[in-house]
Design a protein that fits this description.
The protein is α+β, with helices and mostly antiparallel strands and 313 residues long. The chain is built from 11 helices and 13 strands. The strands form 3 sheets. A 7-stranded mixed sheet has the order 1-2-3-4-5-6-7. The protein has a 3-stranded antiparallel sheet with strand order 8-10-9. Helix 5 packs across helix 7, helix 6 (145-152) packs across helix 7 and helix 9 (223-229) crosses helix 10 (284-290). The longest helix has 15 residues, at 55-69. The termini are far apart.
Protein backbone atom coordinates (compact mmCIF):
# COMPACT_ATOMS: atom_id res chain seq x y z
CA UNK A 1 0.00 0.00 0.00
CA UNK A 2 3.04 2.28 0.28
CA UNK A 3 3.07 3.27 -3.41
CA UNK A 4 -0.63 4.16 -3.26
CA UNK A 5 -0.07 6.29 -0.15
CA UNK A 6 2.77 8.17 -1.86
CA UNK A 7 0.81 8.66 -5.07
CA UNK A 8 -2.28 10.05 -3.33
CA UNK A 9 -0.44 11.72 -0.44
CA UNK A 10 -2.78 10.11 2.07
CA UNK A 11 -2.43 7.80 5.05
CA UNK A 12 -3.36 4.23 4.18
CA UNK A 13 -4.46 1.53 6.60
CA UNK A 14 -5.65 -1.94 5.66
CA UNK A 15 -7.30 -4.74 7.59
CA UNK A 16 -9.41 -7.85 6.92
CA UNK A 17 -13.00 -7.01 6.16
CA UNK A 18 -15.39 -8.33 8.81
CA UNK A 19 -18.51 -7.81 6.72
CA UNK A 20 -18.29 -11.01 4.72
CA UNK A 21 -20.89 -12.91 6.74
CA UNK A 22 -23.87 -13.63 4.56
CA UNK A 23 -21.98 -12.89 1.35
CA UNK A 24 -22.98 -15.14 -1.58
CA UNK A 25 -20.54 -17.99 -2.14
CA UNK A 26 -19.71 -16.94 -5.71
CA UNK A 27 -18.32 -13.61 -4.40
CA UNK A 28 -16.44 -15.18 -1.52
CA UNK A 29 -14.98 -17.74 -3.94
CA UNK A 30 -13.94 -15.14 -6.54
CA UNK A 31 -12.16 -12.43 -4.49
CA UNK A 32 -9.98 -11.72 -1.48
CA UNK A 33 -11.33 -8.70 0.41
CA UNK A 34 -9.61 -5.99 2.49
CA UNK A 35 -11.10 -2.98 4.23
CA UNK A 36 -8.92 -0.01 3.30
CA UNK A 37 -8.93 3.49 4.78
CA UNK A 38 -7.41 6.33 2.74
CA UNK A 39 -7.47 9.21 5.23
CA UNK A 40 -11.21 9.59 5.89
CA UNK A 41 -12.32 7.56 2.89
CA UNK A 42 -13.11 3.90 3.64
CA UNK A 43 -13.59 1.34 0.88
CA UNK A 44 -13.32 -2.35 0.06
CA UNK A 45 -10.45 -3.69 -2.06
CA UNK A 46 -11.43 -6.85 -3.98
CA UNK A 47 -8.59 -8.87 -5.52
CA UNK A 48 -9.47 -11.79 -7.86
CA UNK A 49 -8.34 -15.16 -6.50
CA UNK A 50 -7.84 -16.68 -9.93
CA UNK A 51 -8.37 -15.39 -13.45
CA UNK A 52 -9.80 -11.88 -13.55
CA UNK A 53 -13.54 -12.09 -14.38
CA UNK A 54 -14.99 -10.42 -17.46
CA UNK A 55 -15.83 -6.72 -17.25
CA UNK A 56 -19.55 -7.50 -17.28
CA UNK A 57 -19.11 -9.92 -14.38
CA UNK A 58 -16.99 -7.43 -12.40
CA UNK A 59 -19.64 -4.71 -12.77
CA UNK A 60 -22.35 -7.08 -11.52
CA UNK A 61 -20.14 -8.40 -8.69
CA UNK A 62 -19.29 -4.89 -7.50
CA UNK A 63 -22.94 -3.90 -7.47
CA UNK A 64 -23.65 -6.92 -5.25
CA UNK A 65 -20.66 -6.21 -2.98
CA UNK A 66 -21.63 -2.54 -2.64
CA UNK A 67 -25.15 -3.55 -1.61
CA UNK A 68 -23.57 -5.53 1.25
CA UNK A 69 -20.71 -3.20 2.20
CA UNK A 70 -22.40 0.17 1.60
CA UNK A 71 -19.01 1.63 0.63
CA UNK A 72 -16.98 2.00 -2.58
CA UNK A 73 -15.45 -1.19 -4.01
CA UNK A 74 -12.03 -1.12 -5.71
CA UNK A 75 -10.58 -3.79 -7.99
CA UNK A 76 -7.03 -4.69 -6.88
CA UNK A 77 -4.82 -6.14 -9.62
CA UNK A 78 -1.13 -6.97 -9.87
CA UNK A 79 -0.93 -6.03 -13.53
CA UNK A 80 -3.17 -4.32 -16.07
CA UNK A 81 -2.97 -4.04 -19.86
CA UNK A 82 -3.74 -0.78 -21.61
CA UNK A 83 -6.81 -2.25 -23.29
CA UNK A 84 -8.29 -3.55 -20.03
CA UNK A 85 -7.53 -0.22 -18.33
CA UNK A 86 -9.59 1.59 -20.97
CA UNK A 87 -12.51 -0.83 -20.61
CA UNK A 88 -12.51 -0.56 -16.80
CA UNK A 89 -12.48 3.23 -16.93
CA UNK A 90 -15.28 3.24 -19.51
CA UNK A 91 -17.31 1.02 -17.17
CA UNK A 92 -16.33 3.30 -14.23
CA UNK A 93 -14.89 0.41 -12.23
CA UNK A 94 -12.40 1.77 -9.65
CA UNK A 95 -9.06 -0.02 -9.71
CA UNK A 96 -5.51 -0.01 -8.34
CA UNK A 97 -2.86 -1.84 -10.36
CA UNK A 98 0.89 -1.32 -10.23
CA UNK A 99 1.45 2.39 -10.92
CA UNK A 100 -2.07 2.85 -12.33
CA UNK A 101 -4.84 4.25 -10.14
CA UNK A 102 -8.44 5.01 -11.02
CA UNK A 103 -10.55 6.05 -8.03
CA UNK A 104 -13.34 8.26 -9.41
CA UNK A 105 -15.00 8.56 -5.99
CA UNK A 106 -11.81 10.38 -4.86
CA UNK A 107 -11.20 12.22 -8.11
CA UNK A 108 -7.97 10.25 -8.67
CA UNK A 109 -6.81 9.11 -12.10
CA UNK A 110 -3.05 8.64 -11.91
CA UNK A 111 -0.15 6.94 -13.62
CA UNK A 112 3.44 7.03 -12.44
CA UNK A 113 5.27 9.68 -14.47
CA UNK A 114 7.97 7.32 -15.68
CA UNK A 115 5.55 4.51 -16.48
CA UNK A 116 5.68 3.10 -19.99
CA UNK A 117 3.34 0.32 -20.93
CA UNK A 118 5.47 -2.62 -22.01
CA UNK A 119 5.14 -3.79 -25.57
CA UNK A 120 3.19 -7.04 -25.40
CA UNK A 121 4.98 -10.17 -26.51
CA UNK A 122 3.80 -11.57 -29.81
CA UNK A 123 1.46 -14.50 -29.22
CA UNK A 124 1.08 -17.46 -31.54
CA UNK A 125 -2.03 -17.61 -33.65
CA UNK A 126 -4.31 -20.63 -33.07
CA UNK A 127 -3.02 -22.21 -36.31
CA UNK A 128 0.59 -21.64 -35.30
CA UNK A 129 0.04 -23.18 -31.88
CA UNK A 130 -1.69 -26.23 -33.35
CA UNK A 131 1.20 -26.72 -35.78
CA UNK A 132 3.75 -26.24 -33.01
CA UNK A 133 2.06 -28.75 -30.71
CA UNK A 134 1.67 -31.25 -33.58
CA UNK A 135 5.44 -31.04 -34.02
CA UNK A 136 6.06 -31.52 -30.28
CA UNK A 137 3.86 -34.63 -30.13
CA UNK A 138 5.80 -36.40 -32.88
CA UNK A 139 9.22 -38.00 -32.50
CA UNK A 140 10.66 -36.57 -35.71
CA UNK A 141 12.59 -33.29 -35.60
CA UNK A 142 11.06 -32.00 -38.84
CA UNK A 143 7.67 -31.31 -40.37
CA UNK A 144 6.54 -30.98 -43.97
CA UNK A 145 3.92 -28.30 -44.46
CA UNK A 146 1.80 -30.17 -47.03
CA UNK A 147 0.99 -33.27 -44.95
CA UNK A 148 0.65 -31.14 -41.82
CA UNK A 149 -2.02 -28.97 -43.47
CA UNK A 150 -4.07 -32.12 -44.19
CA UNK A 151 -3.58 -33.44 -40.66
CA UNK A 152 -4.75 -30.20 -39.05
CA UNK A 153 -7.55 -29.56 -41.55
CA UNK A 154 -6.30 -26.06 -42.36
CA UNK A 155 -5.18 -24.46 -45.60
CA UNK A 156 -1.66 -24.62 -46.98
CA UNK A 157 -1.51 -20.82 -46.64
CA UNK A 158 -2.33 -21.03 -42.92
CA UNK A 159 0.41 -23.61 -42.38
CA UNK A 160 2.89 -21.48 -44.32
CA UNK A 161 2.06 -18.46 -42.17
CA UNK A 162 2.36 -20.57 -39.04
CA UNK A 163 5.81 -21.80 -40.07
CA UNK A 164 6.89 -18.23 -40.78
CA UNK A 165 5.75 -17.14 -37.31
CA UNK A 166 7.67 -19.99 -35.66
CA UNK A 167 10.71 -18.94 -37.68
CA UNK A 168 10.30 -15.28 -36.69
CA UNK A 169 10.19 -16.35 -33.02
CA UNK A 170 13.57 -18.07 -33.49
CA UNK A 171 12.05 -21.45 -32.66
CA UNK A 172 12.35 -23.12 -36.09
CA UNK A 173 14.66 -23.19 -39.08
CA UNK A 174 12.98 -23.46 -42.48
CA UNK A 175 14.37 -25.05 -45.63
CA UNK A 176 13.19 -26.76 -48.81
CA UNK A 177 13.24 -30.40 -49.82
CA UNK A 178 12.57 -30.20 -53.54
CA UNK A 179 9.31 -28.26 -53.73
CA UNK A 180 8.31 -29.07 -50.15
CA UNK A 181 8.79 -26.65 -47.25
CA UNK A 182 10.44 -28.28 -44.24
CA UNK A 183 10.61 -26.85 -40.69
CA UNK A 184 13.07 -28.05 -38.04
CA UNK A 185 12.94 -27.17 -34.36
CA UNK A 186 16.09 -25.50 -33.08
CA UNK A 187 16.04 -27.33 -29.73
CA UNK A 188 14.90 -30.60 -28.22
CA UNK A 189 11.14 -30.93 -27.97
CA UNK A 190 10.89 -30.08 -24.26
CA UNK A 191 13.45 -27.26 -24.47
CA UNK A 192 11.53 -25.87 -27.43
CA UNK A 193 8.26 -25.93 -25.48
CA UNK A 194 9.87 -24.06 -22.58
CA UNK A 195 11.52 -21.53 -24.92
CA UNK A 196 8.14 -20.88 -26.55
CA UNK A 197 6.27 -20.38 -23.25
CA UNK A 198 6.09 -16.54 -23.46
CA UNK A 199 4.49 -16.80 -26.91
CA UNK A 200 1.97 -19.56 -26.25
CA UNK A 201 -1.68 -18.62 -26.62
CA UNK A 202 -4.09 -19.41 -23.79
CA UNK A 203 -6.55 -21.67 -25.64
CA UNK A 204 -9.42 -20.58 -23.36
CA UNK A 205 -11.40 -17.64 -24.69
CA UNK A 206 -14.02 -17.48 -21.95
CA UNK A 207 -15.26 -19.43 -18.93
CA UNK A 208 -18.94 -20.08 -18.28
CA UNK A 209 -20.78 -21.97 -15.55
CA UNK A 210 -23.60 -23.93 -17.10
CA UNK A 211 -26.35 -26.18 -15.73
CA UNK A 212 -25.36 -29.86 -15.93
CA UNK A 213 -26.78 -31.83 -18.83
CA UNK A 214 -25.95 -35.03 -20.67
CA UNK A 215 -25.25 -33.03 -23.81
CA UNK A 216 -22.64 -30.82 -22.15
CA UNK A 217 -21.01 -33.69 -20.31
CA UNK A 218 -20.32 -35.37 -23.66
CA UNK A 219 -17.76 -32.61 -24.29
CA UNK A 220 -14.07 -33.42 -23.69
CA UNK A 221 -12.60 -32.80 -20.26
CA UNK A 222 -10.22 -29.86 -19.91
CA UNK A 223 -8.53 -27.89 -17.14
CA UNK A 224 -8.06 -29.62 -13.77
CA UNK A 225 -10.59 -32.30 -14.75
CA UNK A 226 -8.48 -33.35 -17.74
CA UNK A 227 -5.27 -33.17 -15.72
CA UNK A 228 -6.75 -35.47 -13.07
CA UNK A 229 -7.67 -37.99 -15.79
CA UNK A 230 -4.06 -38.33 -16.98
CA UNK A 231 -2.24 -38.00 -13.65
CA UNK A 232 -2.57 -38.84 -9.96
CA UNK A 233 -4.15 -35.46 -9.22
CA UNK A 234 -7.50 -35.60 -7.46
CA UNK A 235 -10.63 -34.71 -9.40
CA UNK A 236 -11.94 -31.14 -9.42
CA UNK A 237 -15.03 -30.31 -7.32
CA UNK A 238 -16.69 -28.81 -10.38
CA UNK A 239 -16.11 -30.75 -13.65
CA UNK A 240 -14.50 -28.72 -16.44
CA UNK A 241 -15.19 -29.29 -20.14
CA UNK A 242 -13.88 -27.69 -23.34
CA UNK A 243 -16.24 -26.31 -25.96
CA UNK A 244 -15.35 -25.16 -29.47
CA UNK A 245 -18.07 -23.87 -31.73
CA UNK A 246 -20.65 -21.13 -32.05
CA UNK A 247 -20.71 -19.03 -28.89
CA UNK A 248 -24.48 -18.60 -28.94
CA UNK A 249 -24.94 -22.39 -28.81
CA UNK A 250 -24.39 -22.35 -25.05
CA UNK A 251 -25.33 -19.90 -22.35
CA UNK A 252 -24.22 -19.66 -18.75
CA UNK A 253 -23.05 -17.44 -15.92
CA UNK A 254 -19.66 -15.81 -15.42
CA UNK A 255 -19.42 -17.00 -11.82
CA UNK A 256 -20.12 -20.25 -10.01
CA UNK A 257 -23.39 -20.10 -8.07
CA UNK A 258 -24.21 -23.77 -7.46
CA UNK A 259 -21.37 -26.30 -7.55
CA UNK A 260 -23.84 -29.20 -7.26
CA UNK A 261 -25.80 -28.26 -10.36
CA UNK A 262 -23.27 -26.51 -12.59
CA UNK A 263 -20.27 -27.50 -14.67
CA UNK A 264 -17.41 -25.27 -15.81
CA UNK A 265 -17.27 -24.75 -19.56
CA UNK A 266 -14.13 -23.39 -21.20
CA UNK A 267 -14.87 -21.83 -24.59
CA UNK A 268 -11.76 -22.62 -26.66
CA UNK A 269 -10.08 -20.74 -29.49
CA UNK A 270 -9.33 -23.95 -31.40
CA UNK A 271 -10.56 -27.53 -31.43
CA UNK A 272 -9.47 -29.05 -28.09
CA UNK A 273 -9.23 -32.66 -29.34
CA UNK A 274 -7.53 -31.94 -32.68
CA UNK A 275 -4.22 -33.33 -31.37
CA UNK A 276 -5.50 -35.53 -28.56
CA UNK A 277 -5.01 -39.30 -28.51
CA UNK A 278 -8.10 -39.53 -26.29
CA UNK A 279 -11.25 -37.97 -27.76
CA UNK A 280 -12.65 -37.48 -24.24
CA UNK A 281 -9.78 -35.14 -23.27
CA UNK A 282 -8.33 -31.91 -24.61
CA UNK A 283 -4.73 -32.35 -25.74
CA UNK A 284 -2.23 -32.29 -22.83
CA UNK A 285 0.01 -29.43 -23.98
CA UNK A 286 -2.98 -27.15 -24.47
CA UNK A 287 -4.22 -28.14 -21.01
CA UNK A 288 -0.85 -27.20 -19.52
CA UNK A 289 -0.93 -23.77 -21.17
CA UNK A 290 -4.50 -23.18 -19.95
CA UNK A 291 -3.37 -23.84 -16.36
CA UNK A 292 -0.70 -21.13 -16.21
CA UNK A 293 -2.39 -19.36 -13.32
CA UNK A 294 -2.67 -22.58 -11.30
CA UNK A 295 0.96 -23.65 -11.39
CA UNK A 296 1.91 -22.23 -8.02
CA UNK A 297 0.10 -25.27 -6.60
CA UNK A 298 2.81 -27.96 -6.14
CA UNK A 299 0.30 -30.77 -6.76
CA UNK A 300 -0.55 -29.36 -10.18
CA UNK A 301 3.10 -28.73 -11.00
CA UNK A 302 3.94 -32.34 -10.09
CA UNK A 303 1.12 -33.63 -12.29
CA UNK A 304 2.33 -31.50 -15.21
CA UNK A 305 5.88 -32.76 -14.77
CA UNK A 306 4.51 -36.30 -15.05
CA UNK A 307 2.85 -35.38 -18.35
CA UNK A 308 6.13 -34.03 -19.69
CA UNK A 309 7.79 -37.38 -18.96
CA UNK A 310 5.02 -39.27 -20.75
CA UNK A 311 5.19 -37.09 -23.85
CA UNK A 312 8.98 -36.83 -24.06
CA UNK A 313 10.36 -40.08 -22.67
Amino acid sequence: MLDLADALDVKITSEPWDGMAGMPYYLYDAYDFRKVAMDEMICIFAQPKGKTPTIQAIVKHFEDIHSIAAMPVVLKLDGLSGERRKVLIKARVPFVANEQIYLPFMGAILQERQYREPKPREKMTPSTQLLFFAYLYQESDKIYTGPMAKKLGISAMQVTRAVRQLQSLNLFDVSKDGVSIVANGRLSHRDLFEAAEPYLLDPVREILYVARSAQLESLPYSGISALSEISMLGAADVPTFAYYGKKDAISGENALTDRERQVRIEVWKYAPTMLSMNRNLADPLSIIVSLRDERDDPRIEQAIEGIYRKIWR
